[in-house]
């Protein structure tokens, strides 16, 4: 496999302009959709089959280094996890890993079973009703195979979204965290950069200025499949208990008749 | 803009007064670069925006109180001795002595000397320097004489105390002090700060004085003409700078030459005498004006006929033909026809309801645009019965920038060429095609006219290149640049320019008709190389490098490809950089001079804004502000409202003016409009208790013509909305996402309430004052499948009032009421 390519989104440089969101729609020819009222500038609420890049807005009173309001802006995207739930769940082999480490869905092979939709811990994979297939960000597969880099990274005016080799970007990101800590951002941290961490590391990783939960991100995301063994035991246990309960109930009733 | 966006990366502190991250996100990358280096970003804005999100500190100030903020900071810098004394003494008029009769609002309770209540204007005879026997301003370099500009300035702003800032602007004293310390403390010989502004400062009844106030602060701190310093004037869209330079304006001719007034300028001689100062670079004005007339009228412009000066239209009065004046006249039935080219005043102009009513009084209207705008369809605005509208409306489909050749001049005076990417579809044409074709057809209609007034129009050239119907834009650029109208030889008889050859520099323009130039500041944009090949410098694309960080090989910046103007100020009196860290240009004693036996030249990282061979020790060799008659930066600078910016409340305000008895700018323009179409709310009106400001969002463009019709942009905001604080929402029982009605004495809009922590009530002189914000992008047209792309017109709320110098509207601060639900 070639060196892993990755996307590093430094939220401390994000100005929430949403150029990435629009560039993504334009390049991938995703149509518009009637937006929800989210109560803020954010639109839409979730990733959809027409929205692969989504800038999220969070008002956090008191979270700025000087105790002021912070308006946390985060351009969110498919994480292309090293241990990808969608890929594991796909029964047809439509979801595959490229030589660059990215995770794509082959639209010709996808049968629309949607197992991948529920298998994604980040709610990224969406179902397209028109084509009957699952769909998501590909890091602009066509562009990166032609040396262009993803449309979102290209459009970002402040270099908040950086695209490159994962190992280089992780080093850069770690330095940036130290710089920010020195500037008073005590909570500055990386999310998904550690390849020994959750999901084997994310190929789209983030620099956050606060705890992951402030950004609506799971603290320790897990694949639903990992719960199968425990869940199965629980189900069996429950079944046994219900059975025992039922037997007890019948016995009691029987006792009553006799008494 | 005195500087260059790229140069912001060299700032030690940046004070953004506009919402730069949202409205100029691409330029904002240089702010982020400076921040990565450790520079501090201050954001001064009534709202907490995406710029505040990136800032180190945010100061919310009540809309319309900018002069108190800047005045307070000027006072702070002087009181704490944080100003750049050497710069102030030598490069500004601070040391000049003012006429003893001159008095300021400190003495006259809000007025300057010379106020005439009946005329509502000032007699400016005392607003002047004391002159010595040779006619030069008297000066006191110690700055101690009470009549020095510095002492008058100090006294004037001594009223703008920390307490006053807190009471008027609503910024807590400690926060203002912290910001003042941060900004003023990061300026000086080895540090510089920059200030950005946009329509946040201009759209007020003291708009020009707002800009003056920040310019004065920058002069005081020595931040003009130096790397990382300057005034970053952010333009409202991609080519506003170009439109201003070429003067699609009512009061100026291309290249900042005043548009002649009917009574004051009866002939060219009088015009040039009155408008040409005695000193500074504008002494060349006759060369620029004559070359402009030659560009307009060609061979028909001769010395004998004043180069066609009499054919120029003249202004009837100072405000005549300004935007608001025009719409008032239109409403009063004084205009029969109107051509709106790429403009949407039914949405974008102030008091838009009045604008639409005025359009209904026209006989005909032509709208040339890329979509069917609300202006093109004003006759079917909600509440209008189309059969009642008698105006005949024609719509011409036009081509946007990507479908035509040409240039855009961006906010940093940078002219960038682009070729058409695709041909315009169907009947769509470029503006140039349309106007040239129209003019040539009109010339045919006028052909044979014996009237003197028609001669100029008949003589004017509208043919550029081979095809009259498709003008060659490179030929247009050549005319704008200027060419030799006949062969020009030097004193030795050597041909310098052959006939028709583009000129290399505006220094070669003449006032005898041998050169033409459609806009003198653009001269040098297109030139001929040694082999006689045309070189369009605006099309060059050499990125900035370490050695040339300002990127002189990318496009062409006027004037003379200079990236930081007044850059002589980057060096001290002797021509040495103020510090190694902040060097830009300097005097090199050893460099070869302009004559074989002479040495010495200005060198460095930018094109000197100065005679490159003028020794610092020579006369005026230490005077950087060459566009001013007295060659120094002006603290004392008379405008129609006075020589120093003074705070007055907006025309509609929730509070009395705490600085003087004068509630509003005494010379502000308020138009009388028939049928009660311009009512104003009184001070502290109980019916309209809240301050409102209007603004733009990243996702939309201006009146929405380039965004509301494009699905991918239109979907980014759910619907038209008003932003308000949790505190006000609680008082009014409004939930986030609920429909509300915002009303002013002029009109009302129905919008969605966005309740947010980003708005907070102000404490103004101890009382709570709420402010809300409403973007102005929406109109009744949009993308059919996205209902939220359509909405009420925010400018139906704003008033027909203006600044006394340029008559810009006051849409950043006025009064409103908010009611729950649709009422």
Describe this structure as you would to a colleague.
The complex is a heterodimer of chains A (259) and B (823). Chain A is α+β, with helices and mostly antiparallel strands. Chain A is built from seven helices and ten strands. Chain A has two domains: 5-219, Alpha-Beta Plaits; 225-258. Chain A has helices spanning 19-27, 85-89, 115-119, 141-144, 151-155, 166-182, 228-258, and strands spanning 5-10, 54-60, 70-76, 95-97, 103-105, 126-128, 133-135, 161-165, 189-191, 204-208. The mean pLDDT of chain A is 93. In chain B, the strands form twelve sheets. A six-stranded mixed sheet of chain B has the order 26-28-27-33-25-31. In chain B, helix 4 (66-79) runs antiparallel to helix 8 (162-169) and helix 4 (66-79) runs parallel beside helix 11. In chain B, helix 3 (50-54) links the parallel strand 2 (40-44) and strand 3. Chain A binds chain B through residues 13, 15-19, 21-22, 25-26, 31-41, 43, 59, 61, 65-66, 68-73, 157-159, 179, 183, and chain B through 21-22, 25-26, 28-29, 32, 36, 38, 48, 50-54, 56-58, 697-699, 711-719, 736-737, 752, 754-758, 783, 785-788.
Number of domains of chain A: 2
CATH class term of the largest domain in chain B: Alpha Beta
Oligomeric organization of the protein chains: heterodimer
Total of helices of chain B: 22
Overall number of strands of chain A: 10
Mean pLDDT of chain A: 93
The portion of residues forming beta strands of chain B comes to 15-25%
Low-pLDDT runs of 5+ residues of chain B are none
Order of helices and strands of chain A: EHEEHEEHEEHHEHEEH
